[in-house]
C-alpha cells in the first residue's frame, strides 16, 4: 500500500502519461503531508480535507487547474487501485470543478488573441480560480498602475496571511492577527525589509481593497539597519566579462556601464540611445519613471542622483564609494576597464 506499489500499478493499469505523472503527483501530495519528508514504505493517508489543503497549496503556488486536476486523479486512482478503502474519500465534485476550470483556462489561452490586456481600459486576465479577495486586489493594483512585480509580491503575502488565519475572508481579522503573522515571519529569520514588505501588502489590502484603516499597525514595522551595497571590484567584473558573449555580453556591459536595472536593459529600444549626447533614455524605470543615464560622461553628485532615479541624495551617496572621486564626479565604470 505504499508509493512503490502505486508506481507498479500505474505501469499495469495505464498506457499514457498517467504511468509517469500519477506516481509523481502522489509523491508531491505525500511530501506535503509529511512536511517535506516521505516514507515510501507506508501507505499515504487520503482524506477529503487533506486533498483540499494540498490543492489550495498548489493553487497559491501558481499551479494551473489542469495540473491540480491531474493530482486529484492520481490520488483517486491510488485510493481505488491500491488502498481500496470503503468508503473512499469522495473527490468527484472536486474533479468536476477543476475540469471546468481547466477547460476555461485552456479556452482563454487558445483564444483568438484578442484577450484583454491590463491597462487598456480593463483589468486584463485574472485567474478565476484565485480567491475572490485576491482577484479584487489584482484589479485595484492594476488600476493604480503598480508594477507586475509589486502585484505578485503583494498578493503572495496576502495569500500567506490567509493560510495563517486559515480563512480567505479577511474582514474579521485585524491588528492582532497581523501582529501574530509578522511575528511568525520574524521567527523565520527574514530580513527587516521582507517583513516590512509583508506589512505593506496587508496595509494595501485593508486600505485599498476593504476600505478599512488599521490603527496602530505602524508600530509593527521592523527597524532596518544601515545598508551598504556589495560591489564587485574591477578585477572581478573583468573576470565575469569573459563568460559572456554576443547579446548577453552587450547587456552585461550596458547594465554595468550605465547603471541599468535588468528590466530597463531588456526594454531598451534603438531610439533610446543618443550617441551624440552620450546618454541613454530610460523609459518607465523603477517607480514607472523616466530618466536619463550616462553612456558615459562625467557628473556631480546631484546629476548622479538624477541619473539613478533616486528620490533622496542620501541614497545616491551610499553608492559613491565605488567612484574614483567620491561625491565629486563620476565616469562609467567601463572606462576604467578598457572594454570596447
Characterise the protein shown here.
This protein has 14 helices and three strands. It has three domains: 3-109; 132-220, DNA polymerase, domain 1, CATH 1.10.150.130; 234-337, Orthogonal Bundle (hpI Integrase, Chain A). A three-stranded antiparallel β-sheet has the order 1-2-3. The chain has 340 residues and is an all-alpha fold. The longest helix has 19 residues, at 65-83. Strand 1 and strand 2 (279-282) form a beta hairpin. The protein is globular, with a radius of gyration of 26 Å. 20% of the residues are buried. It starts with a helix and ends in a 21-residue tail after the last helix. Helix 13 (301-308) packs across helix 14. The model is unreliable at 112-117 and 320-329 (pLDDT under 50).
Secondary structure class reads: mainly alpha
Could you give the order of strands across the largest sheet? 1-2-3
Low-pLDDT stretches: 112-117, 320-329
* Overall geometric form: globular
Domains, number: 3
Number of helices: 14
Order of helices and strands: HHHHHHHHHHHHEEEHH
Share of residues in helices: 40-55%
Largest beta-sheet characterization = 3 strands, antiparallel
> Total number of β-strand segments?
3
Work out the radius of gyration. 26 Å
The protein's oligomeric status is single chain
Distance from first to last alpha carbon:
65 Å
Q: What is the residue-mean pLDDT, rounded to a whole number?
A: 80
Strand percentage: under 5%
Secondary-structure map with pairings?
Elements lengths: L2 H11 L4 H16 L14 H13 L4 H19 L8 H18 L22 H12 L4 H18 L9 H13 L4 H18 L24 H8 L4 H13 L3 H5 L6 E2 L4 E4 L8 E4 L6 H8 L4 H7 L21
Antiparallel strand pairs: 1-2, 2-3
Helix pairs in contact: 1-2, 2-4, 3-4, 4-5, 6-7, 7-9, 8-9, 13-14
